Recover the amino acids of this structure.
């Protein structure tokens, strides 16, 4: 008999030894080599996955608790994976950054990548500003917000300023993370 009707087709088995950050999901444990301030690893279990949307672009944000704070990995899976990490857990106010709502409105209107500001002794270059949406698991409507993105001059850090309706502006610092520095351990 060539075909056994009782046999079940099996899906190819996932290669658990070679999972990539783009494969990560809620419940997985992630280890980011040398990402802590003291160059130790940051290990956390993903307890939240959110999907972001800006125009036709989508990416995901994985987060979980590490030590006494929430840490985040923003994963863009275009032609090659790009990963940004927020490991300090701080929300920075506009006053701390030295910008006003009017400053942000003017930059948004100009959309000029030559715009910059000085924060923490560094120049931060304007990269873009646009409306975005974020979706949590099971949420089909999502939540809209406006985002301004800046990049530290001659560095791999980014400053993201977000404004959700009815909430104050807040900024967060992100650093580029090599996908090769992230190990994914699949939950069972």
């Amino acid at each position: 008999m060539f075909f056994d009707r009782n046999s079940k087709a099996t899906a190819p088995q996932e290669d658990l030894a070679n999972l990539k950050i783009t494969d990560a999901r809620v419940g997985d444990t992630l280890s980011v080599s040398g990402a802590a301030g003291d160059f130790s690893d940051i290990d956390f279990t993903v307890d939240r996955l959110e999907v972001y949307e800006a125009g036709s672009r989508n990416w995901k944000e994985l987060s979980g608790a590490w030590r006494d704070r929430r840490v985040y990995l923003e994963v863009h899976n275009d032609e090659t994976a790009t990963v940004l990490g927020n490991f300090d857990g701080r929300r920075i106010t506009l006053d701390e950054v030295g910008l006003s709502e009017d400053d942000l409105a003017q930059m948004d209107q100009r959309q000029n990548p030559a715009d910059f500001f000085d924060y923490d002794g560094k120049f931060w270059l304007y990269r873009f500003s646009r409306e975005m949406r974020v979706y949590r698991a099971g949420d089909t409507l999502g939540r809209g917000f406006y985002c301004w993105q800046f990049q530290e001059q001659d560095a791999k850090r980014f400053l993201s300023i977000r404004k959700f309706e009815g909430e104050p502006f807040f900024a967060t610092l992100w650093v580029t993370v090599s996908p090769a520095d992230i190990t994914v351990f699949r939950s069972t």
Q: What stands out?
A: The chain is about 5% helix and 45% strand. Helices lie at 94-97, 101-110. The mean pLDDT is 92.
